[in-house]
Amino acid sequence: MKKKIILTFDYELYLGKDSGTIDKCMLEPTQKILESLKRHNANGIFFIDANFLVILKQQCLSGYQMVKKQILDMLKNGNDIGLHIHPHWIDSYMISKDRWSFRSYENFRIHNLNKEQISSILKDSFKELDLICKEFSQHYKIDSFRAGGWCVQPFSSVKEILKEIGIKYDFSVLPGMKKNSLPRHYYDYSLTPNKPYWKFADDPLKEDSNGDFIEIPVTVTKLNIFSVLYNKRKIRAYSIYGNGKGAYSTSGFFELLKKIRIFIKYAFSSDYMSFDVFVKNMINTNKELIVYVAHPKNFSSESFLILKYCCENYNVIKYKDIV
Ligand SMILES: [Zn+2]
Asked: Any idea where the NodB homology domain is (predicted)?
């Protein structure tokens, strides 16, 4: 029997000095992803950077219309839509018609905003995305969330608002992984239940069968240092769709030193992973459910091979089918 896989995509521009263009980072690669999914009779969930949608509607209406059309296409093809938020869009400025940069990254982590700001950013972004989904169907309900930069802790800062807007599923956890470059970026998922998904109430890392939320973590694998080096060399040759620059980097020399280990954890993703390294890890994993993550902006020709491989060799399921 084929193993199960859930395909998740984060639909967004770059979040660093140059956002890149909507065409190259979102529309073109996503069109090809949608075609590939359709060919394989498969579908996934697209987490839409909805705070960006708010900015886009205000500053570039023609771009907004194209992005909106593509979100409707995702839905028409049977895909799901989830809420994704990068709060530092509030510090963005336009550098040309559909290209932005950021004055500051202080608000990269939603928890750096005050209570009122967190509430309004979540509600306004949700409202914008919901408006589009309701155009597809009055009955469509957005019930899934992935925090920008995976920063969902402490959950108490967002819990009540997420509940109020109808979020049930959280996809923000990367089991075993952690990052600390506070105040800008932080998550610590070192200790997570060793399960494909679980219910929780106040803390995504603590199972609670009476909780209102369900955590569906991204599947993480370990690459040994030789695979990492091999992979790095291979992906250097690939050209990706996106024409922007990644989020700010805080990795100095000591950060890098800390990262050097025999095994390094990677999310199951086609972003920056060669086909052979990805497939080898998929074959070797003992997980009964794989939750894959990818960003259209990072898609290369190799990423399409990985997506094709997943669709042909795994049973692609919808997240609602598991619980
Ligand atoms: Zn994101």
From this structure: 3-241
Arithmetic mean of pLDDT over the chain? 93
Q: ∠ at Cα 121 (217, 323), nearest 5°?
A: 30
Cα 86 to averaged position of ligand 1 atoms, centre (Å): 6
Among all chains, which residue has been given the structure tokens 């408006």? 131
Whole domain around residue 115: which residue ranges? 4-321
Residue 52: DSSP 8-state: H
Question: 13 CA distance to ligand 1 centroid (A)?
Answer: 8
Question: What Rg do the C-alpha atoms of the chain give, in angstroms?
Answer: 19
**CA 147 → CA 86, 89, 168, 185, 229, distances in Å?**
8, 14, 14, 12, 29
Domain count, the chain: 1
Which token pair is 44? 């996934």
pLDDT digits (tens, 9 = 90+) for 241-285: 898 887 655 455 555 555 666 778 889 999 988 999 999 999 999
pTM of the model: 0.95
CA 295 to ligand 1 center in whole angstroms: 8
pLDDT value of position 18 = 94
pLDDT value at residue 258: 59
For residue 254, the model assigns a pLDDT of: 59
Residue 203, domain CATH? 3.20.20.370
C-alpha 308 to ligand 1 mean position (Å): 23
* SS3 state of residue 188: strand
Beta strands in the chain (DSSP E): 4-11, 45-49, 80-85, 92-96, 99-102, 144-147, 169-170, 178-181, 185-188, 198-200, 213-215, 220-224, 263-267, 289-294, 315-316
| Stretches in the chain below the pLDDT threshold 50 | 250
